[in-house]
Amino acid sequence: MEQSLKGKNLIQPTDFLIPEIDALIEIAIKISNKLPSYRKVAEGKLLATLFFEPSTRTRLSFEAAMLRLGGKVLGFSESASSSTAKGESLSDTIKTVSKYVDAIVIRHPKEGSAFIASQSAEVPVINAGDGGHYHPTQTLTDLLTIKKEKGRLDNLRIGCCGDLKFGRTVHSLVKAMGHRKNNEFVFISPNELRIPEYVRTDLEKTKSVFAEVTDLNLFIKDLDVLYMTRVQRERFFNEEEYLKLKDIYILDEKKMELADKDLIVLHPLPRVNEIEVGVDKDSRAKYFDQAQNGMYIRMALLKEMLGV
Ligand code: NCD
Fold first, then answer.
1. pLDDT tens by residue, 197-211
2. DSSP 3-state assignment of 24?
């Protein structure tokens, strides 16, 4: 890689330049083709995974990535088991953990928390999700999957469907893809769950074409990528509102019949009801491949950030 990512933080999806992201994708593809030859790359290095919010894929794929590189991992998967439960500030936790490890991965329910963490850290910090804000390593995962499946990261019409208000994976993906050439976005959501103002403002800055609509059936046929999302129950202030909106879009086999034969369906997972299990056998459903790509791209990311 020409520009080095060694020692850098990854807090926002655009913290890395497009050539740096493209290089990471290439490294991830190489790793996926030759996994065993990377097994000693991070020997002697230690990664902390600090998860103040639930996770399956992100935490385990980071841990698998570090272990497959020959490094080691420590951390916690709920804030109740850390000193936060005793009232310690995030900043003090990070200062302390910095003394033990070579890099920190953090997920936290508060927007901006990963940035705050990076201010106190003496080692690189990776944002694994800060509230409803951003989730840049999910975006790297999504970009790797789109690149593998469509062969390009530009000139795509991308539909994002579901909870576009609280879905940090959508905010991050849109920010990253909006910086590439000729991508268009169709945002499919109920009025209550429209994309936030700051995402819209970003798209206006990059002069990206986008539309906000409510009907999935009407627009599915025009898409290259359909990015489905879960309604983010934990971010609602009111359970009644969640119950009203939770099953608003359900992708089923009938809707898939309306779509292009080259469409790909992505989902960051976990899924609740928004994709029927019957869709899984459709060759256009790529969400479990996407989860696997998450490990490869995190291997590439750790390798480069640790400079090993
Ligand atoms: C996503 C997240 O945590 O934002 N999950 C993930 O990291 N793969 C999506 C979600 O929780 O809905």
1. 999 999 999 999 999
2. helix
